[in-house]
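Q: Got a minute? One more chain.
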Amino acid sequence: MIVAVGVDSDACGRLLLAYSDGDRRASEIIERDDGFIDASGGPAGYFAPVRRWPAAERRGLRFVRGRVLDVGCGAGRVALELQRRGHEVVAIDNSPGAIEVARRRGVRDARAVALEAFDPELGRFDTAVMYGNNLGLLGSQAKARRVLTRLGPMVHRIVASTMNPYGTDDPVHLAYHARNRKRGRMSGQLRLRVRFRGHASRWFDYLLVSPEELQTLIEGTGWQLLHFIAGEPIDVVVLERLAR
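A: Always. Here it is, folded:
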């Protein structure tokens, strides 16, 4: 029997709920708009304790200060670790399912809010953490500049993980870079959707940038690149708001 796949903007949330409920066979499929399909490493990474995080993410924690906004919190791994270290944390994610899982696991303040819909009423934050490659949530050059400019008055520092899109020699990915540039997009501007069993998310843009591209991206937004922590394959960048 063939089961039709339905569009479900919370396919990722369904995945995390299934894994949280004990389904260790749950896995997600990432589909790119050129037809490339890949299986992720599975949802276990969303639940990983700090000792199992990428080395660059562990090192980046030393730059986290004060009140923290956990952007794209997923199952809450970052929020839980920072709570353990004594930080006040507000965790946000556009997935209601992810927020439910994060709350179940003990995240004290978790809210279903997308980054671009960030509400100034949440107050000011010393640090925004965007782990799990979540610098990619900036989406595109135009969106990145809008979001960074908007965050400026509310966040002092951003600690984010990312991947350099040019760290590949795979001809399929290199052809995708060329296709993007031909269409006026950044090489690492991915158009993706997530599939889990009979569910598929809506298409969304996810941005991978090199350190040089990031420098260009933040020009005029009120942010400076304070630190770059190289990793394999995950890098961490620390952005800080320029003095006014």
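A: Helices lie at 11-20, 55-60, 77-84, 96-104, 141-151, 171-182, 211-218.
Q: Perfect, thanks.
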